[in-house]
Amino acid sequence: MTLFGYKIPMMASLLVWCAIWEIVGQSGVMFLIPPLSDVLVAAFHLVQTGTWQAAAITTLSSFLIGMAFAIVVGVVLGVLMGRVPAIDNLLGIWVNIFVSAPLSALVPVLMILFGMGETTVIVTVFLFAVWIVVLDTRAGIQHVPPSLIEMARSYGASRTALYGKIILLAALPEILAGIRLGLVRGVKGVVIGQLLVAIIGYGELFELFSRNFDMDNFWALTIILFAFAMLVSALIENIEKRVEYYAGVR
After folding, report:
1. According to DSSP H, which parts of 84-214 are helical?
2. What is the DSSP letter of 104?
3. What global pTM score does this model have?
4. Please, which of 90, 107, 201, 219 could form a disulfide with 59 given CB 3.0 to 4.6 Å?
């Protein structure tokens, strides 16, 4: 971005928002928005408490288990839909429905099916993340050049080698893009799931802080969560850039 002929770093907008937040908080016009400096101090103290560490472990555990299922199921379904037209026609409409559906509305149903516990949160993370992984994997598989597959077959590649060394590697950039978007949606799913269950992990802390109007810790928890989502997304994006080679040669 350029302004008056000068190149402005992308992080400049974030600094502007931080400055506005600090000014609004210091003015005291809005009780629900404390100064950013107080929130950062609260975040520093919060991460040192056993309560936050236990909640973080519970939340991270639900997130990782849900994402592991979402990635495995999403990639397998995406490969099947990309390679088998009959499966694509059968499942395509349902995948598109679930991608665009407001999945938060399903959480109360999941609570009835799986109870008020960690299983509901894991299933919520899975449902939020899996569909975008399916769609991106399917797109990657369908864009693998037929000539690449024919060349592998002409050299006598087995079915395992064809999928493991040709098709999946050629589709890897799209698969990673789907996983990156799925991770971000998974963070949203774990928070929504725990907020509605409200007895475990971050959901319990959000409920506790909001009920006591402890806005410093409430916003501190929110910032920590946002930072985690951005960190995970940046990590996968970095891996994506490293495998762009496969997209270039296919």
Report:
1. 85-100, 107-114, 118-142, 146-154, 159-161, 168-170, 172-197, 201-211
2. G
3. 0.79
4. 201
